[in-house]
## 1
Amino acid sequence: MKIIGLSGSIVGSKTRTVMDAVAKEIAEKYPEADFQLIDLKDYDLQFSDGRNYLDYSGDTAWVTRQVMEADVMIIGTPVFQASIPASLKNIFDLLPVGAFQDKTVSFFVTAGSSKHYLVADHQLKPTLSYMKAQIVQTFVYVEEKSFQQKKIVDDDVFIRLERLIEDTMDTYEANEIIRKKKEDSYGF
Amino acid sequence: MEQYRIDQKKGLEFGLYTLGDHLANPFTGKRISAQQRLQEIIELAKLAEQAGLDFFSVGESHQDYFTTQAHSVVLAAIAQATKTIKLGSSSTIISTSDPVRVYEDFATIDLISNGRAEIIAGRASRIGLFELLGYDVQDYEALYEEKFDLLLQINEKERLSWEGDYRAPLKDAHVLPRPKDNTLPIWRAVGGTPASAMKAGYTGVPMMLATLGGPASAFKNVIDAYRETAERSGHHTDDLPVGVTGFFHVAETSQEALQQMYPYINEGMKLTNGQGFPKQAFAQAKDKRSVINVGSPQEVIEKILYQHELFGHQRYLAQMDFGGVPFEQLAKNIEMIGTKILPAIRKHTGMNQED
């Protein structure tokens, strides 16, 4: 099973800080999982121009291929102007329709205040649904007040992340059972 | 239709098309050499002719896992190896070629083949060839429209003067040789959306419509959009043939046909398109309403006749060799087409004396 932790922002530190906590939790609880953290800050991606993702080169080719090969994605996103950042939307734009078919996708949101709580429901979930992701319905919302000097200082965040990861793994397992049962029924 | 060498009295034309893909057989993991693949494509065209098929075409794709980049050269070899079957490209990427050169090539193939060559001009779904051949992909649409238009003008006029943005001007240029009957059938390749089909309608050129999957009725809407646009633009749809292409495979039963076909499509698409074919969607090809012509010979006959009723098209092109399908399986398919499918289709769609 290949899991990608996709930190969707190229600025700031909160999303990466939470993603590091996710990575630590997965390493401890699911040591057999193939987890890969992709922080968009570390890559130079071009904007989508509509071509097939196989036709890009460099970092753009590498990141899109990793995402396409994943079985599970855990996305971290900040809130920019009442939506997800352009860097994360660009990942979706670079990929084909149906890119998340048979993939389990969960996410967490970091934000300055509680005012943007529904942003993920309104902005992120419709795109993931359109791309055929099996979405883990609950997500973790982490506010500014839970951080101090680039560290999570709120125990509740760790506890909720623990549940998010457990839910993600359970959803993946259940989805695999459903998929296998369906595919076996076709007899080819 | 005469201009496009189609005699509707004979019924729906049946052809084969290959993209010239060069993929490993997913059952064995082995890939034949590029040379063998090319030889087999030529053999396939000969078998198709012997079985009485109307048309055979070869496409150009300039990327890994393909081998007919020089598709006009392959077609020239087929022209020499055959006598009656019509030949074409599926498709020629006119955007990244010089229309004068393309016309010279196909007019030559037309003379070698005694008047059997056609061009289906497309825009490319993958874009690696823009860089390879020295074009800017930002000009994707403009390159196609300008060069396709020039290709049509060369077809109409033996001598022409022309000026555009993507090629040096032509001053009373004499494009030679001329095809056997002075013009070639030139089609526009359409990728399945009404917007794309309407572009062919505006120009009033025949449309070759690609289908991948889904209900046939969805493509009926595309064909309607093409014909409506053509009529509105002052063209006569009675004179404009429509071709429809799609996956094809026959076996004893539909279940066997699906079993045999799926791994080729799924694994082949993963490599050439970056995504497999969802199994659930492929399983629905059993349904008579599906545009994928996979099943027993009788089921496929029913499907093609149903599609003909919906589309009123003049030519069907089957894609049966995608994904590393071994030659014996292709030969078996062609035999079934020749002995079972073609007679039924011609009987039901043609206007012969027995009716």
## 2
Amino acid sequence: MRFFKNIITLLSVFSMIFLTGTTMAQAKAKAKPLKIGSILAVTGPASFLGDPELKTLKMYIAEINAKGGINGHKIEFVHYDTKGKAKEAKNFVNRLIKKDKVDIIIGGTTSGNSLAVIDLVQRAKVPFISLAGSIKIVEPVKKWVFKTPHTDKMAAEKIFTDMKKRGIKKVALITGNGGFDKSGRAQCLAMAPKYGIKIVADEQYDNADTDMTTQLTKIRATDAQAILNFGFGKAPAIVAKNIKQLGIKLPVYESHGVASKKFIELAGAAANGIRLPAAALIVADQLPANDPQKKVLLAYKKKFEAKYGPVSTFGGHAYDALFITVDAVKRAGSIDRAKIRDEIEKTHGFVGTGGIFNMSPTDHLGLNLSAFKMIEIQNGNWKLLY
Amino acid sequence: MDQLLQFLISGLTVGSIYALVALGFSIIYNASDVVNFAQGEFVMIGAMSAIFMLKAGLSYPVAAFLSIALTAAVGLALEKFAIEPAKNATVVTTIIITIGASIFLRGAALLIWGKEIYGLPPFTSNNPIRIGNATILPQNLWVMLGTAVAVLAVKYFFDRTRMGKAILACSFNKKAAYLVGINVKRMLLVSYGLSAALGAAAGLLVTPITFMSYGSGVMLGLKGFCAAILGGMGNSMGAVLGGLLLGIIETVGAGFISSGYKDAIAFFVILIVLFVKPSGILGKEEAERV
């Protein structure tokens, strides 16, 4: 026991020396560092979102620092893993604000985590760029809160736009029981009337379920002209397979939640013909050469894949948040929280991975429907429709 | 009517998966009155190791055999290093140890195989078979066949073989079993190994339908546990009956009442059954030892 105690004391002494060493070194640098804090769900159920987000942030911050920082301000990055838990998110944001005294916070991987910390950042007057989907994060507009990912509302609208084009008027909805699914379901139900679409079935499943033929049998008995499945993870792949098993020939739509190669791999041949809205990243090489996003997307993809393997749209949200911040700091010419906030709000024509951002005092997301591409799965691959 | 047929077939499909997992609980329960909450993890380890052996280029039968053997080894190790050292622990303590083991195994699987979801190719064709207006996948039939074979094997093992009877004897009275010359320690070890092997086989059978990731064992284990409780813990026929019933209650409930309340309906029925007959449908009424 004593041996271990000694080691621990020794270690803490070393780490203190190391820490004071680094802070002293930083004090010597010319400009004060820009402190970016982040809370991401790197482990836990939302890890597939948080993991690429953290990797993206780390990779680009290292690159920016290697190039001398932003206007001479090196970036100091403080990260905490929320494991997807709202309570942890709150604790860590408190720590980021009070103890680490960060200038801006990027993160809140899930909608639950992001919504949980809005009050804290609003009160402390710290700019916060969320990486989560829910529209509630920026609607109504909160002074200090921004976000970069597309919303479920946009996904629903994009799908209904496409359905309208094909003359589909009656839709069967099938969704899971997770937060993403439930929020998506609510948006679908709310948006459908706007596009003259009637929801004729509203079925639900548990995300851990192994079979959805029951729900789909009920859908088969309705007069629906298309099936819309709003979900992510393995469940939509099971839905796709079950649709094929039951011999249902209706057009099938999925949400942006399945915009990963994993879905095609799991659903196999059953994935063919399914349409979904997704960020341009997954079809970057199919974009026309004059598309302003193409260069950004291919550069991000190449860089990420060289270091970590297959790219996902989720890491792209972190890329957008980081470079919106970088641009804002450049324009502000200062690392004052209020000035950074003002400049983020003035973001105009920023070409990111998620789309072209035009923020304003009434729009803290700044993306429109064109940021989503309509994609069809053909022969086990993504095909950009428009 | 068409709908009802499909609901029943879907129910049997889901139910046979639950039944197969539920069977795994009965062996360890019969040996030591312990509910092994790591049973779902055995299912997951069996499936995940087979998936990665296939990826490494092994043939399907070889990968299946090796993954069952590997999972059995994990089961043996669990008994040897976690259960046996706590030999004087009460049943409740041992159950808590198995919960700890399940968390450990899940974490280890996360580190080894990552967070991704994987599938296995079906054993035979993937074309649905038509029965009237309802359809069923060939793999579902494999699951049902697997369940039937497993239940008969388990029943035969406990009713007809010396070792099965010896394991049962250990659960009734460890000391008496020891006195008549049964190696109690070894019986317990065997029961964990067999249970893990059965779990792995279940994992192989269900993965082409359900997919698998490091965390999938939790829900499968939980549903299997519910099925086992419903049918009567420790009774292999009960496990099958409980599994099939649970599956049918879920699908018929989802089909005719509401898919949003599917699990609630199932749990409600389980509660009612346990209220009327606490030992489960086929469970033995047991006098509480005071």
